[in-house]
Amino acid sequence: MATARPYRGVSADDRKASRREALVAATLDVVGRDGVAAATVETVCAEAGLTKRYFYESFADRDALFEALIDAMLDGVRERIGAALAGAGDSAEERTRLTADALVSFFDADRRQARLYIEAPVHPALNARREASMTGFADLIMGDVLGVDTADARVQLAGLLVVGGTTEVLSRWLAGEIDLTHDEVVDEITRIGLAVVPTTVET
Amino acid sequence: MATARPYRGVSADDRKASRREALVAATLDVVGRDGVAAATVETVCAEAGLTKRYFYESFADRDALFEALIDAMLDGVRERIGAALAGAGDSAEERTRLTADALVSFFDADRRQARLYIEAPVHPALNARREASMTGFADLIMGDVLGVDTADARVQLAGLLVVGGTTEVLSRWLAGEIDLTHDEVVDEITRIGLAVVPTTVET
DNA sequence: CCCATCTGATACGCGGACGTTTCAGATGGG
DNA sequence: CCCATCTGAAACGTCCGCGTATCAGATGGG
User: Fold this and answer.
1) If you classify domain B12-59 with CATH, what class do you get?
2) What is the band of A200 on the pLDDT scale with cuts at 50, 70, 90?
3) CA distance B183 to A43
4) Residues of chain B with CATH 1.10.10
5) Closest C-alpha to A154, from B170, B179, B102, B93
6) Nucleotide nearest A8, from its CA to each C1'
7) Of B160, B173, B178, which has the smallest distance from its Cβ to A168's Cβ?
8) From CA A49, how far away is CA A175, in angstroms rounded?
9) Which single residue has its CA nearest the C1' atom of nucleotide D28?
10) Each residue of A131-157: pLDDT tens digit?
């Protein structure tokens, strides 16, 4: 049954896919404009110009949408950092700066994603991904960027402090509470990242 | 009207005050056990062994309770830090360690308060206080403890990064994700706090 | 041209939480 | 002793969001 049929010249799969895409985009818009808490199934559908029927066509429930959304965002961040580090040298200073710049640039360029990340704690499904990602970023920064032993609990602590602190700083800077330019923010985060490395465990 | 009358030997004011206190204590218990999101008017009243009528006798609404709760918690933290710094010398290292220890000890000793602080972002009223307090703590640490110029935007950034990062670290450590002792955590936070000071603006 | 499918809108039932109100019974003052 | 006040429990009305179901009209295949 349900022998998929073209409609207005588009195949069933294409229609479904573009509706899903519209929903994800609409959610990001709502989050960016009104915050995560405002992104209900109803408001998202209204924003997308679709009805709830199509929501449940693509997502099992609201959590599924949020998970898809934040996973896409986190993949984007990782990709951005990966690209920045791809052609980099071995200098810890250079690598740290490139990483910090990738992060700041990513969220500066798309405030919707920034708000999603910043407000992730309001929703359990988002918060779980956020926490996991912070651990991952901490490992990445301490290991791949600064080149210290991430098995050391002190290094883990330092990594989480830098990542958590950077998140807080980004949130404030994007809100206009910190009167520094993009480059100055990157400078400071880089400086702090380098300063925070436990000297006793350098490799 | 409402000519307050004693009941079971207690004055009306005393009865009301103890009910209010019971509600605050119950909220803290619920938050500690089940999280901020679980602290509804109904669950709090049930925990306190009171009914909603008494809730609205002491609080205008749920937000008022949350505000009273987090303000009390933040006052407690400030008091604890103040006491720690009261008899301290001028050494930045000593003052930083005492501050870090005060913070870690406070939340380590009362996980309910820790959970309230950590989960504050889930509720707007709590989050507003949390954000304001972080700015305040950042100023306190950079100014009163480390003795640098808090008018400098770079110092503000560093302060927020340390405070935000410390919050993240505390959250993880209390959750058992960081395998360090109380003293080791204080050591690391102290070390990082000192390392993060922008050297170009020392006073 | 006819009928199955797709679309868009709307209605529905459910549960959770809020804040208000009602009521019977316990308690204390005059 | 009587009656006003206090207590504890419960009921109520409202709102909001979820997830499902219904239905008339548009569209396309055979």
Assistant:
1) mainly alpha
2) low
3) 49
4) 12-59
5) B179
6) D27
7) B160
8) 30
9) A7
10) 999 999 999 999 999 999 999 999 999
The CATH architecture one would assign to domain A62-201 is Orthogonal Bundle (1.10)
Contact yes or no for B153 and A179 at CB 8 A: yes
* Intervals of CATH 1.10.357.10 along chain A: 62-201
Q: How far apart are the CA of A159 and the nearest CA of chain B, in angstroms? A: 9
The dihedral built from the CA positions of residue B23, B28, B33 and B37, taken in this order, carries a sign that is positive
Q: Are B73 and B116 in contact (CB under 8 A)?
A: yes
Q: Which nucleotide is closest to A40, CA to C1'?
A: D17
State the CATH architecture for A11-59.
Orthogonal Bundle (1.10)
| CA A136, chain centre distance (Å) | 12
CA of B15 to C1' of C29 (A): 18
Q: Which CATH number fits domain B63-201: 1.10.3720.10, 2.40.50.100, 3.30.1120.10, 1.10.357.10?
A: 1.10.357.10
How far does CA B31 lie from the centroid of its chain? 13
CB of A7 nearer than 7 A to strand C: yes
pLDDT tens readout for residues A76-124: 999 999 999 998 899 999 999 999 999 999 999 999 999 999 999 999 9
Name the pTM for this structure.
0.94
Shortest distance between the Cα of A169 and any Cα of chain B, in A, equals 6
What is the band of B50 on the pLDDT scale with cuts at 50, 70, 90? very high
Tokens of A145: 């960027």
Non-local CB neighbours of A98 within 8 Å, separated by 6+ positions: A84, A85, A88
